[in-house]
Specification:
Layout lengths: L6 E4 L22 E3 L4 E3 L2 E3 L2 E4 L10 H10 L4 E5 L2 H4 L14 H10 L3 E7 L13 H4 L10 H18 L8 E4 L7 H13 L6 E5 L12 E6 L14 H4 L15 H7 L19 E5 L14 H14 L4 E4 L4 E2 L21 E2 L13 H20 L4 E2 L16 E5 L4 E7 L9 E10 L2 E12 L3 E11 L2 E6 L2 E6 L5 E5 L7 E4 L2 E4 L7 E3 L2 E6 L7 E4 L5 E4 L3 E4 L5 E5 L5 E5 L4 E5 L8 E4 L1 E6 L11 E2 L2 E2 L4 H7 L1 E6 L12 E7 L2 E6 L2 E7 L5 E4 L11 E6 L1 E2 L8 H7 L5 E2 L1 E9 L1 E4 L2
């Protein structure tokens, strides 16, 4: 691509005046919190919340605290969770809220960690749970489900009452309540559900509903929430990269997505509602609850989004004017029992793994951080530092924009500004269809009567660039005219420090007071008037952590860091840990002392084959609505290879939080402890991590690994890397490459 097209944008003011809806201002008002049609504010200061989905019933209770710390360390400020009716109430009149189902204890812990809580109470949730989360006795009831059928509403009334009773005073801490999910043409039913929830004693400042698929929502009653996935399991195995996925790699002011929920509509033989709004209402700000933090895996289609795929969608939504970044999933988990997943047997178009719900999320099923955690947490640090001003900045699109999702030559960028200052967002990444470098790019932004053209000479924008460049940004009394390095945070001090991160392949340039300076990224700041500017090298981007609790701090570490509401830092390391903190007073990084009671180690596992796989497995195990079905449990047991894993002693030491790491190839894997299946996985080419403590491993337990081969001619869709490996065989693919135990070092910095 050549940058001959004019890269120019003019600030566009808000199209409608500032409004304060009834929600949170008149109805369910909470001191210090207010919603406008542009943003949420706390104590009069606009904020851009970051919500992440974590299902408490899919995570062991003794892991809740750590998962919440991991979310906080990623910059998440709000936790969202479905309340799966199916998990709580196997029979009418029975509702369990103990152990891992203690929703009140979970909500309390969220608050203690310094986070807000949104409960998605359904009653229909989905989340790949059987019957969409309806217990069988509800699903089989002779009623018109998800409508105002009085008999159905009687059951819902009971359920909402049970939730409210279980929450007790903890329910007063909720920031938001989501009603239903992916309901397209029943606005009055949403009003009814809200009334029933309120009558049951449930309330929150924010009431939300999903708005994609042209959903017809009741005006002023619910905050519309949108989503965006860059790939999905819900299309056919042989389907190309769908335009509904591709859309999210572009800047746009269209927020609706016709693709999300298509599997549910297919199962229910309904169409997306027509004529619904594709942009947020004039009453509420643009907000999301389901940006793809990863993607679930169905048997027939197994997408595996890369970290940059996930980050690019979120990045575009910020540039589009997002007032709330919400991810599904942010932390994966494991179904709390067998047969709780959606499948062909339940009438769902997709077979979902019975137990494992890793979702390739930033925090995986095993509690390990994916590379997407680092990509997203830099965005979230930016929102924390600059969200107060960014929330008041509408999005403006450039004069020349891509012609459609097939356009791989026109640069994708946008401006958010208040007419005086702002940020330019550049997104030049997409999966599946590689982008070329954008040659000779130079930008002109018009902010009122001020025109800023930068950089000083045209630059090339490499593929993979996700940039957020400040324009006419004032900090510490100094105005940065522009910088071609991405804004990260602003550290307090007698002289504040603007922290930028260099974008790979782009030489940073900073303009202040008419002077333009080329900058070599490093660990020492440059002084511009009353402002220090620290430009970190691109190579350190994945090592960046910004702590907001206990005073904003900038840390560098290749290891996992966690912290609670006090800001006290815990290090979880697979190597001798190193943590550095930046001191604005000395203008330098210093090493923090990390105690290591025991060193981290990795030990191989002795693998003994108990039974080989069948010499020939079927190419397919049946179909449902044209999509390949997973084999039945008895067929799996008949055909799969079985291996005994003899684990080293460290595998049973919970203080080391040991992981089992399996690299393999095949079709389906299942891990059993003393004959009980503890998790499973459809192969997609990625390594399989299992937390041995969570899996219930104890000294003397027998651990077996069951692997089903994948036939060479299988019609299932797997990522390109996995497909290449499958093509290497003429018969069937089964390989167990490595099995090892990783014992980590866990330490808290004093």
């Amino acid at each position: 691509m050549s940058g001959h097209e004019p890269l120019s944008v003019r600030h566009q003011a808000w199209a409608i005046p500032l409004r304060r809806p009834r929600m949170s201002n008149v109805e369910d008002a909470r001191p210090g919190l207010s919603l406008t049609n542009r943003y949420l504010s706390r104590d009069g200061v606009p904020v851009i919340p970051v919500s992440g989905e974590l299902h408490y019933s899919r995570v062991p209770r003794d892991r809740w605290a750590e998962r919440l710390r991991q979310m906080k360390a990623g910059g998440v400020t709000v936790v969202a969770s479905y309340v799966f009716w199916l998990h709580h109430s196997p029979a009418r009149g029975e509702a369990r809220f103990d152990g891992g189902l203690d929703v009140a204890a979970f909500v309390d812990l969220v608050g203690e960690t310094g986070l807000d809580m949104v409960l998605r109470i359904g009653p229909w949730c989905h989340g790949e749970a059987r019957n969409g989360g309806f217990p069988d006795w509800v699903q089989q009831a002779p009623v018109r489900h998800r409508t105002d059928d009085p008999t159905y509403l009687e059951m819902v009334t009971e359920w909402f009452g049970q939730i409210s009773a279980a929450l007790g005073r903890s329910g007063e801490k909720l920031l938001g309540i989501q009603l239903e999910n992916e309901l397209y043409d029943q606005p009055q039913h949403l009003v009814t559900l809200k009334r029933l929830a309120r009558e049951a004693g449930l309330s929150a400042p924010l009431w939300t509903a999903t708005a994609w698929g042209g959903a017809d929502l009741p005006a002023e009653e619910v905050l519309p929430l949108y989503g965006g996935y860059g790939d999905g399991f819900w299309v056919d195995a042989d389907a190309p990269w769908d335009p509904t996925f591709r859309d999210h790699y572009f800047f746009s002011h269209v927020w609706d997505d016709a693709g999300i929920g298509a599997d549910v509509r297919r199962a229910q033989a309904i169409e997306a509602a027509s004529g619904g709004p594709r942009t947020p209402s004039e009453e509420f700000p643009a907000a999301t609850c389901e940006l793809g933090g990863g993607m679930a895996t169905a048997y027939h289609r197994r997408p595996r989004p890369a970290a940059l795929d996930v980050a690019a969608i979120a990045h575009c939504k910020i540039g589009n004017g997002s007032a709330w970044q919400g991810y599904y999933m942010y932390a994966g988990g494991t179904n709390p029992g067998p047969d709780l997943q959606e499948s062909h047997a339940t009438g769902y178009p997709n077979d979902i793994a019975p137990l494992g719900y890793d979702f390739h999320a930033p925090v995986g099923e095993a509690g390990t951080l994916a590379p997407s955690h680092a990509e997203l947490r830099r965005q979230h640090a930016f929102l924390s530092a600059f969200g107060g001003s960014l929330a008041e900045m509408p999005s403006s699109l450039p004069d020349v924009r891509p012609t459609g999702v097939e356009d791989s030559s026109t640069l994708r960028w946008a401006l958010r500004s208040d007419g005086s200052s702002g940020f330019v967002f550049v997104s030049w990444h997409q999966p599946h269809v590689p982008l070329p470098s954008c040659r000779g790019a130079r930008f002109t932004t018009v902010l009122g009567d001020r025109e800023i053209t930068f950089p000083s000479a045209p630059i090339d924008i490499p593929a993979g660039t996700l940039a957020r460049w400040p324009v006419h940004l004032t900090a510490g009394g100094t105005t940065v005219t522009y910088a071609t390095a991405s804004a990260l945070t602003l550290l307090p001090g007698d002289v504040p420090t603007l922290v930028l991160v260099a974008d790979p392949g782009i030489d940073p340039e900073i303009a202040v007071s008419g002077s333009v300076q080329a900058v070599t990224p490093g660990l020492e700041p440059l002084r511009f008037g009353d402002l220090d500017v620290l430009v970190l090298p691109a190579a350190l981007a994945a090592s960046v952590w910004v702590v907001e609790d206990g005073g904003r701090r900038l840390l560098l570490s290749d290891d996992e860091l966690q912290w609670d509401a006090s800001g006290r830092i815990t290090v979880k390391a697979v190597r001798p840990a190193s943590v550095r903190v930046y001191d604005p007073a000395t203008r330098a990084f210093t090493d923090l002392t990390v105690p290591h009671p025991v060193p981290p180690v990795t030990e191989p596992v002795i693998v003994e084959q108990l039974r080989p796989a069948a010499p020939t497995v079927p190419v397919a195990y049946g179909k449902h609505e044209g999509r390949p079905s997973a084999p039945a449990a008895d067929v799996f047991d008949e055909l799969a290879a079985v291996y005994r894993l003899r684990l080293p002693g460290i595998a049973a030491d919970p203080s080391r939080d040991p992981l089992l790491r399996i690299t393999w190839a095949g079709d389906i894997g299942e891990l059993r402890v003393d004959g009980r299946a503890v998790t499973d996985r459809y192969w997609d080419g990625s390594a399989w991590l299992v937390n041995l403590t969570d899996a219930g491993y104890r000294p003397g337990a027998q651990v077996t690994l069951h692997l089903l081969p994948l036939a060479a001619g299988s019609p299932v869709s797997v990522p390109d890397e996995a497909r290449t490996r499958l093509r290497s065989t003429d018969t069937q693919l089964l390989a167990l490459d490595t099995v090892e135990v990783i014992a980590r070092s866990v330490a808290t910095i004093p």
